[in-house]
Design a protein that fits this description.
418 residues; globular; alpha+beta; 24% strand; 27% helix; 21 strands; Chloramphenicol Acetyltransferase
Length: 418
């Protein structure tokens, strides 16, 4: 099972596009997979014959787990037509078993480790309980950290011979209709709605974020009067373009955030145990609310894009998210996220950091507000923005300087065009 996104931990086979015995070319589409964010077709890594499907349609497998065997037409399958494939794909030391098939095999996510090993406490304890050498495991967590799922996958793969379905696949119940249930432990009846892959991932990752990253919040109020005038001028100009596009306030905020990250690079970082990783690129995640959950497609190199380019790419990403057509590169590599609830008449809110990023900007609605200017009470359009920061990587002064830069850029917005 290939990894198709920063947050993916397992994939569900929706359908196989080839059947056992079919010839397969390298790069040819092999199966359709549901991840935590999108449905996407995966390609064959090598040419040959599809000898054995290990994960049937409707079942899930963790990243790196074998899902199929591709080899020569006359190549014998191990363990009696694949029954003990899982036990033979990984040698005790973490490398490939010499007796495993020579064809193209999707192996479990283990590999010889080098240098310091990063592993979560619960993963370390689980490995110790089962006397598993975790140094041979390739971590799928942030910055290669070994997490509980990686250890569980290694334990399943290296377990004594057993039916392949129980060794490789964490049972995933088939989608079921919501059922009306009665429980003696609750005050009233409830409707049980099975969690989608996206909802499960959101629950897991945001719980992890709140538990591992000590959040703190800094709020700023920004005058958007000049910003509105600039937006109108830009849109009047863009309307004459053969392919017109409207620049939104969120596009302007994304551009300001990108420039602020360039000028305050200490915010464009990830926390990595014994070091802080300062990112060279400025890739802004744009939160898109869908009925089934929240997606965060990524606008890459936002600091280098013009406002019209940002507007076009933002529309493409939002439409692709709603139509379930995002590509893996569309939701990977984010370094900072902007979450805007202004369209829902929300004054202000705090957002949960999207790991492995270290900060997220929550944007409220723009509202006319009475303020004092030069000793006079006047009405100005203002918006509240709140920066959530990981205190392991950022301090309050850095967060405040970032918001100061955002405020300067949005209140004197001509700088967004330079």
């Amino acid at each position: 099972m290939p990894k198709m996104g920063d947050t993916m931990e397992e994939g569900k086979i929706l359908q196989w596009l080839k059947k056992e015995g079919d010839a397969v070319n390298k790069g040819e589409m092999l199966a359709e997979v549901e991840t935590d964010k999108v449905n996407i077709e995966i390609e064959a890594f090598s040419a040959g014959v599809l000898r054995k499907i290990l994960v049937p349609a409707g079942s899930a497998a963790p990243i790196g787990a074998p899902i199929a065997l591709i080899g020569s037409a006359d190549e014998p399958l191990p363990g009696g037509n694949g029954e003990a494939v899982a036990a033979r794909l990984i040698a005790p030391g973490g490398g490939r078993d010499k007796s495993a098939p020579t064809g193209a095999i999707n192996r479990a996510a283990t590999a010889p480790a080098q240098g310091r090993i990063f592993i979560s406490p619960i993963a370390r304890r689980l490995a110790s309980e089962h006397q598993l050498d975790y140094r041979a495991i390739r971590g799928s967590g942030p910055n290669g950290r070994i997490i509980r799922m990686d250890v569980e996958t290694a334990l399943r793969v290296q377990a004594p011979a057993a039916p392949v379905a129980t060794q490789l696949i964490a049972p995933t119940p088939a989608p079921a209709e919501a059922q009306f249930i009665t429980s003696p432990t609750v005050a009233e009846d409830a409707i049980a709605i099975p969690l989608s892959n996206m909802r499960r991932t959101i629950a897991r990752r945001l719980t992890q974020s709140m538990q591992s990253a000590p959040h703190f919040y800094v709020t700023s109020v920004i005058d958007t009067t000049k910003l509105a005038a600039l937006r109108q001028q830009i849109n009047d100009y863009a309307a004459r373009d053969p392919s017109p596009v409207k620049v939104s306030f969120n596009d302007l905020i994304v551009k300001a955030a990108a420039l602020a990250l360039v000028r305050i690079p200490q915010v464009n970082v990830s926390f990595a145990e014994d070091k802080i990783l300062q990112k060279k690129q400025v890739n802004i995640g744009i939160a898109v609310a869908l009925e089934q959950g929240l997606l965060v497609p990524v606008l890459h190199d936002a600091d280098k894009r013009g406002l019209l380019d940002i507007a076009r790419e933002s529309r493409r990403l939002a439409e692709a998210a709603r139509e379930n057509k995002l590509r893996p590169e569309d939701f990977s590599g984010g370094t900072f996220t902007v979450s805007n609830l202004g369209m829902f008449d929300v004054e202000s809110f705090t957002a949960v950091i999207n790991p492995p990023e270290s900060a997220i900007l929550a944007v409220g609605s723009i509202a006319p507000t009475p303020v004092v200017v030069d000793g006079q009470i006047v009405v100005r359009d203002r918006v509240k923005v709140t920066l959530s920061s990981d205190h392991r990587a950022l301090d309050g002064a850095i967060a405040a300087r970032f918001l100061q830069e955002m405020k300067r850029l949005l209140e004197e917005p001509f700088g967004l065009l330079l």
